Amino acid sequence: MAMELSSLPLVLLLCLLAGSSTTALPALPGMDRVRQQVDRANRRGPSIGLVMSYVAEDNALQASGYFRPWRVQPFVDLYGRRFHIGSIRGANVIYALTGQRRLNAAVTVQTLLDVFTVSGIVHYGTAGSSNDSMSFGDVSVPKLVAYTGAWTWKKFKSLKESSTELNFGQFNIPDGGENLLGSLKYRNEELYSVGKPMEEVFWLPVDSAWFNIAEGLKVNLERCNDTFCLPKTPQVVHGLKGASADMFLDNAEYRKFLFREFAVSTIDEESAAVVMTTTSPGVPVIVFRGVSDLAGGEPTWSSTSLMNLASINALKVAVEFIATIGRQMSTPSAQSSKN
């Protein structure tokens, strides 16, 4: 049963008020030191949260020289992850390697939002292409992402309920027909947002204001790495759709199905989780994904030779975006709006 503050004992009330002035972390061994480190980092002011999923994407950032660690305290180790404290092109940044797939991405982003003072989340990394709408090395700035790994497995020979279902029998060889695996119905996500009732959604939009800023960026992407040169200079492509699921997709027929049914151009494992986690509290989010491979049915050299190049190109766009946001946050008008 809820209690009003006036009914609480005075000593307990004072303890609650005193605890509210510092970072809310659980009372685990060693947390006092971590709490001090987090509070010290937050006293710098708001930071932009930057997350990536693969070690190769983290390596691209470390090798680039873009990130300048904060000499006072370059990192905070929390819940098994290292949160790097520093700046990129003059903007305060806290970045972390999330690890692969949905749960790792969501936990890392939620930690950033709950523990650190962040003004928004920037997510960059690599992705597979679902069709030929994007070339290797291109960077997608999707406007919408969806989680396509939530299914209802339907009974064999059950009737089709929606226009978008994966019927395994259609992929039989030599001819399509029935298949004992039946079919899959794609499910919506349950989105819980501040001040709103739970709603079921399939498409998750990135922040519209941040997307408009990203559309105005001018970034020269790399065409070559140490082992390979692309036939043409990659481009930044805005406004397409992306799909995420907890699997590494390497199947030509399924990627074609995703493009045909959902019109998605890139496929990865984490973007939808990052966007959904930030959407709940209403924190701005943007995604940059560099195309490193065709998600099934392509020459074997693409994913190994071009992952580094795709990471570098996605990082370049993310860095330019962070620099632009940082300049806007430091303008007198932005400062006065905070006061």
Summarize the structure.
The protein has 339 residues and is α/β, with parallel strands linked by helices. 32% of the residues lie in helices and 26% in strands.
State the oligomer: single chain
Task: State the helicity in percent bands.
Answer: 25-40%
How many strand units? 18
Beta-strand percent range: 25-35%
Count of individual helical segments: 9
Question: What do you see in this structure?
Answer:
The structure is a single chain. By secondary structure, the chain is α/β, with parallel strands linked by helices. 32% of the residues lie in helices and 26% in strands. It is built from 9 helices and 18 strands. Strands 1, 2, 3, 4, 5, 6, 7, 8, 14, 15, 16, 17 and 18 form a 13-stranded mixed beta sheet that branches. A 3-stranded antiparallel beta sheet has the order 9-11-10, with no helix packed on it. It has a two-stranded antiparallel ribbon with strand order 12-13. α4 runs parallel beside α7. The protein is globular. The protein starts with 9 loop residues before the first helix and ends with a helix. The N terminus and C terminus are likely disordered.
